Amino acid sequence: MPIQGPSDTTTIIAIAGASASGKSLLASSIYQQLAPKLGSQQLAVIAEDAYYRDQSHLPMEQRVLTDYDQPSAFEHDLLVEHLAVLKSGGSVEVPQYDFRRHTRRSKALSIVSPRVVMVEGILLLSVPALRDCFDVRIFVDTPLDLCLLRRIRRDTEERGRSLHSVIEQYERTVRPAYHQHIAPARQHADLVVTEGGQNTVAIDLITTKIRQLIEC
Ligand SMILES: Nc1ncnc2c1ncn2[C@@H]1O[C@H](COP(=O)(O)OP(=O)(O)O)[C@@H](O)[C@H]1O
Ligand SMILES: O=c1ccn([C@@H]2O[C@H](COP(=O)(O)O)[C@@H](O)[C@H]2O)c(=O)[nH]1
């Protein structure tokens, strides 16, 4: 049996914020800082993106038209179910998502009884049933112009997009959903982090808090 925290449950942390605000980088920076002390097998990072709905039954022309910035694009029920299992010390099979093909990969990834789970994603604090799953809620607050510039770079280099498609999608779904769902959820955060994954003071504070929570 894995060693568990003081309340015998897994600590689950949400890292929310706009697309390309630095959520993944922040999660990875916290992971790097905690792993030597805690052991990498005790830590897990889950992307909300992994829970985008499978669209393998749809032709590609239809997949590109999906609005990926609304809650309906995600299988949030499955994420809530997985977080409940992890919370009680269990293991789950997390789906994997292919951004180039806009659908799930065939293989899932096993996450086996970690003590700390960090979940990063755009809508984690916007959906009440999800919001309730977390012990610590973090919001990465990065100016939207920087997010757009970073998204252009990332999506053209890593997600197989053209500049034209990034801009079209940004105007059609990304920016409206930021104002409709993401920005209003900032009020539900315990901690707001500027400078994302490069805010070393915030990273130190968060890792200290996590270690306190699990008495490491
Ligand atoms: N503080 C930062 N300074 C410069 N680049 C950054 C910073 N934070 C993130 N990035 C870069 O911006 C892109 C988006 O960051 P990422 O962490 O993937 O965002 P998110 O997970 O919020 O979508 C990545 O290429 C990342 O390396
Ligand atoms: O098939 C897809 C699925 C999602 N997106 C976009 O991804 C971002 C969320 O991911 P981040 O890593 O937080 O940026 C969201 O804004 C979707 O628009 C996509 O383009 N295609």
UniProtKB/TrEMBL annotation:
It is found in: Cytoplasm. SUPFAM superfamilies: P-loop containing nucleoside triphosphate hydrolases. Keywords: ATP-binding, Cytoplasm, Kinase, Nucleotide-binding, Transferase. Its EC number is 2.7.1.48. It catalyses: uridine + ATP = UMP + ADP + H(+); cytidine + ATP = CMP + ADP + H(+). GO terms for cellular component: cytoplasm. One of its GO terms (biological process) is CTP salvage. This is Uridine kinase. It comes from the Bacteria. It comes from Pseudohongiella spirulinae. The keyword Nucleotide-binding applies. The lineage of its organism: Bacteria, Pseudomonadati, Pseudomonadota, Gammaproteobacteria, Pseudomonadales. It holds the Pfam family PRK. Pathway: Pyrimidine metabolism; CTP biosynthesis via salvage pathway; CTP from cytidine: step 1/3; Pyrimidine metabolism; UMP biosynthesis via salvage pathway; UMP from uridine: step 1/1.
